[in-house]
Amino acid sequence: MAKAITPRSVDYSEWYNDLVIRSGLADYSAVRGCMIIKPLGYALWENMRAVLDRMFKETGHVNAYFPLFIPKSFLSREAQHVEGFAKECAVVTHHRLKLAEDGSGVVVDPDAKLEEELIVRPTSETIIWHTYRDWIQSYRDLPLLINQWANVVRWEMRTRPFLRTAEFLWQEGHTAHATREEAIAEAERMLDVYARFAEEYMAMPVVRGVKTPSERFAGAEETYCIEALMQDGKALQAGTSHFLGQNFAKAFDVTFLDQHNQRQYVWATSWGVSTRLVGALVMTHSDDDGLVLPPRLAPLQVAIVTIPTVEEPQMTVARELAEQLQRIGISVTVDTDETKRAGFKFAEYELRGVPVRIAIGKRDVEADTVEIARRDTKEKATVPRAAAVEHVRGLLDEIQQNLLRRARQFVADNTHTVETFEEFQRVLDERGGFVLAHWDGTAETEARIKELTKATIRCIPLDGAPQEGRCILTGKPSSRRVLFARAY
RNA sequence: CGGGGUGUAGCGCAGCCCGGUUAGCGCACCUGCUUUGGGAGCAGGGGGUCGUGUGUUCGAAUCACACCACCCCGACCA
After folding, report:
1. For residue range A350-408, what is the model confidence (pLDDT) as tens digits?
2. Burial classification of residue A185, based on how many CB atoms lie within 10 Å of its CB (0-12 exposed, 13-18 middle, 19 or more buried)
3. In CATH, what number is assigned to the domain containing residue A346?
4. What pLDDT sits at residue A3?
5. What is the interface pTM, i.e. ipTM, of the complex?
6. Does the residue A438 lie in any domain?
7. Which nt sits closest to A238, CA to C1'?
8. Span CA (A165) to C1' (B36), Å
9. Which of A362, A395, A428 finishes a domain?
10. CA distance linking residue A40 with residue A299, whole number of Å
11. Distance between the alpha carbon (CA) of A165 and the C1' atom of B53, Å
12. Does A66 fall in a domain?
């Protein structure tokens, strides 16, 4: 094995880093905390983006684009918002460089200092709500349903490829509504879109819930989220949808006249998912041999390898088969690289997560068969050439379903219900995973549990039935279980 | 921002303690031949500001000091 990836059992974190780099998803860059998204990683993001974009449009949203830079004063308009983001903002202070007098290169020209500093957006609520003030006058202007695909910068202390980078790509939806109820319905609708995307496309089961007040987005009245469970038993917040109340409308003075000629503040939501989803996908399905990508998002679904590459009969079969697969909408490549041998290619396609690999050798040509291997289980089947297209079509569906099934089973196996604090600690230390437990509802208890165990309340699950119980820490009454985990 | 680690060829490393030929090794790369059903073999070849700076010395990858960068672990966050 020329390209050994650290096995998960040795060091999960190393495995992830190795895999991201060696599979060709991303590279480190010259800038701290910023990564280069390589063609494979970007293709994956493009596929995610295409599906999400379609789902947003199906739910009535349109795309727009707002500036990268935000005047510093905007950020301070909403008190909680600035508190939440102030510590991680990149700030532009000058607009010009000049040659250094000592010839050592360029220096910032002190004469080019900006009157007001510009913040590189960590999120766009402020500049968007500043704009919405001009766009909204009447109830007829509502709802305003806009999404933006953009990059944002958060100067994080500690970064990890895809999971937390200083610059990341995302989408941010920003909507304005006439009523509280409508805005809440919008926030819930978009959470539902995210959850469906995660399960149907990423094959990643998620728990839907709401954040506790201390975990809420800065400036939100309610933060809805989807939480996923990674293979090492740690949780990952995969998407959030916020009900912002009238906070931003009040901060930016966005009002409208209703049907009764009454001036009202607008109700808001914002919601986003980011390139973090690529990391989530990797951590959900992949194994020690490389990426495992769900067919519905895989940039390449089928790779055909002929053995040997150069000889004609098998190459002819490969090209015919590829054409037939393409015709039914399956992405496929015929590997014509004569400098690599079959074994090398097998390993390489596995590393890159291609769901289905087909091998065609002289033996197959003679028997009129092809060998079809699936990435998720690594099983191989020899099937008649005439049945290959249907086999592949069915197999891609089967892999998609199997990944979701497997991931669901994992979440089920790693979700524990506990009654006492001792049990809580033991489960976290020995097994990790999601832990359902009673909590007295106070921020103090939440903070204390975090301090003692490093576990946070990931969410208050939306589908959890109310249940009387006693808080695992304080013994005070609790009306429902909440979802705890150690998280990324 | 605290703790730890690493900077030597595209990648991974040895050499450094104890200074001294032309700085090595594996992978990758180039050429040729033989191969080709799970990361091929042989032969030949190309590729280096030893992170940066200053100092010590006849002489520094090697010793000293300073700086920089990146990675990992923590606290903070999508």
Report:
1. 999 999 999 999 999 999 999 999 999 999 999 999 999 999 999 999 999 999 999 99
2. middle
3. 3.40.50.800
4. 53
5. 0.84
6. yes
7. B78
8. 43
9. A395
10. 7
11. 31
12. yes
